[in-house]
Every structure is written in structure tokens, then in C-alpha cells.
Amino acid sequence: MQKYLTIYHELVKKIQSNQLPESTKLPSENELTEIYSTSRETIRKALNQLAQDGYIQKIRGKGSVVIDTNKFDFPVSGIVSFKELATNLQLPANTIVNELAIVEADQELQSKLNINLRDSVWKVVRARKISGEKVILDKDYFNKDYVPELTREICEDSIYDYLENQLELKISFARKEIVVEEPSEEDRALLDLEGYSNVVVIKSMVYLEDTSLFQYTESRHRPDKFRFVDFARRVK
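Below the sequence we write its predicted C-alpha cells.
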């Protein structure tokens, strides 16, 4: 691993563990070069990465200051599995499979997946734990024509890893809708909501490379833990 990434990860751990709480001013670049016995350029790379990932704010004349890190950036525009997200954010995370079953499509699933009434659909309900708290409830529905088999072990690890590397499906794009809803009884039973009166729900219809619609998902998030981010470019 490159030296600047080692420094970056060490500082991230200190921020996440509150050794460097919000509003703390980091040592200067010169001081950090001495602490880590490295070049100023390496320190600058590490600090730039921290700023880019939302851990610090670099203020001219004042140095680098730790900012609010209680919320995790959740990329809206991309198609990212929970396992990939947790790995990218360097977070302790795991998945609890609450339900894995084959169900018959009702009228709502018929509409969401563009299938026939009573077609077979995989239903997967999973609670996602981050740092010991259940903060996401993922409800996934897969057209069984494209996903003939699922196991609890696959669902606990990564369904997308299985789909892409075992079934060799080419996942391509998704249509997404973000809404704020009152928690359902299921949300309250399976998430650590701690009195929160809303959940942020990302509803996605996911397509393969050949434009086949194969998945409908509701990803239900505790509102205090995430920033929903996107990249936008002005087009004239």
C-alpha cells in the first residue's frame, strides 16, 4: 500500500473512533511529515484524500479541521452493493438475512418487475449493520428467470458478487426514486430506529446490459447515518 494511503487510513480510524473529534485541528503539514517520517507531498496526498472523502475541511490560513463524520456518503447515481460500500468506507459491517423465499408476483411486483401475475420471484429481506447498529433494511425482489437459485450464504455475503462472477450477469443501469416515508412495523422491528420518525427509501429498478429488468429493490435507511450524494455537471 502506498504511504499516503497508510497515513490516510490511520487518520480515518482516529476520526471514526473519536480520537480526533469534530472541530479538532490536525497538526500542520510540517508536523505531520515529522510524525510519519515522510515527505510533505505524501502528507498532502493523504490530506487531500481525507478532504475528498468528507473527513476534514482544509481552511486557508488555519490548516485542516475535522468535520461531522456521523453520516456516511451513499452514492445515489452508481450501482454499488452494500459489501462494496462498506469496504470503500472502511466500516465494520455485516448482514442479517431476515427472509429468503420464493413468492408469487402480486399486482405490485407484476408492475415493478414487468412480469406476469404469479410468476416466481425471489424475495430477500436483509438488515445491514454498520458499527453494531442496524441502519439499512434492504428488500430485494429478483425475477427467478434470471436468478434461478439463491442461498442464505450468498445473501449474507454479496448477491451482486454471485450474480456477476458466478452467473455472469451483466448488471448495467438502474432507475431510482428517493422518498421519505414513515417507518413501517417491519422497519421498526428490524432496524435500530431509536425513535426516528422517518426513513429514507431508495427504490430501484435494475436492468441488465440487454435492458432486461431483473431486480426491484427498496433500500430503507435510518436518516441520521447517511448523506445521499451525486455528481452533477452543468450542460449547456
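The mean pLDDT is 90.
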